[in-house]
Amino acid sequence: MHRNVGLDWAQDSLRVATLQSGFRGFAVQEVRSAALPPEGAPAERLRAGLAALELIPPLGREDSIAVALPGSLVATHLIALPFSDPRRIEQVLPAEVEAAIPFDLSEVVWDAAILGAPGGKTEVLVGVVRKAALREHLDALAAAGIDPRVVTLAPLALAALGERGMLVEQGEPPLTAVLLDAGPDRADLALLDGGRPVLARALTTSNAAQWAAAATDAEARARLLSTLTRDLKISLRSRKTAPQRLLLAGALASLPEAAERLSAETQLATEPVTLPAGDPAAALALGLALRAQVPRGRANLRKGEFAFTKDLSHVRGRLLRLGIAASVLLALGLVLGIARLSSLHRQAAEYDDALCTATRRILGTCLNDYRQAIAQLSGGRSRAAGIPRVSAADVLAELVARMPEGSLPLLDDVEVTTSAIRLRGTADDFGKVEEIVSALRKDKCFGEIPPPKTDRTRDTKKVTFALEFPYACSGEVPGGA
Prior knowledge:
5-stranded mixed beta sheet; 481 residues; alpha+beta; Gyrase A, domain 2
């Protein structure tokens, strides 16, 4: 069973959120959390946490997993470019990134996400991690049986909650708000404008001991919150967006007096974030699950030599399934083709029998070739030779079609057969009669048309005329039927 999984590997806990995709969208399956053992190697602690989650079935090869790198491993840079053309951005960005970091590009892995284009400029968030650090992190995950498809930045994963409408009720407009997820050794900020991120960055935070003290000591709490408030204010001043609310996630959401203090400092309505499933501490895990569902479009550091290799096996598996389906369709098409050929062969035999019966009755001999049958039926000695190829209605239609539009007469009497036409009508003057006769003489199916009999009426001063001429395209042969 394929699941989209967000795995939030924190310092002291492990949280997981799973989504099930369907034709009508997706649904949150479950959100779970487990404490990590305080001692042991990273891979051992992670394995213990995964076992404590008691997922059924456990995470496996069929699952699409997304994780976020710890803030201590990844550096972020906001780069402003004076244009918005995607091709130019792609060409210029490597040089901009190399100028912003103290390493050679060959020593790092980086990826970018476009945040917006205010004032015709493009703001690009770039995440950079050293290859050695990324390899060590992926090795620890692999030792615990985890091969993530997406390795991204925590602030962008949080922003996915706003982009996918998880922060508002169904049918409500997208939210313009600040989402702040903070806890021991981690603080991430996402500023959303109409549901889309316009700022995503990591903030300075305190260690686990300071967070533990802040839960019970007012002075320790004040020191911890003052650092977060300072960085939060600086971040908000750098943007013109006016957020409606400040939403708290992570350990910060349950810290005593945190919402009140931050509301007083920022003048924003502050409250713990409400999620479709799980408590505010599960915000990052749920955002990562959304990133696992749509792996493209935002920063993913699994690229180059660290690319997700199962993508190829997944493609191969799909190609194999498509090949099997194509083989089945080909076999079905072959069977259907044979059946249709057999049906056509049977119909052809029935047509030949019907043609033989008809020609034997009319000509006295059996013919199976319809061309020969038509030739003999059209012959002068055939009883079918006198059958016209057109009807009187066809002749009348051709007669009306040949009448000039500017000289249409009033037809008083029309007698049409498949071999002759007789008509009497009334025209405005003698010139109109001549136009009618000239137009009819242009039709090769109308035989020789003699001059019409004409007469002017006394009361209306109009001209009556009478015409009689043969029709030569009926196919009738004298002496036929």
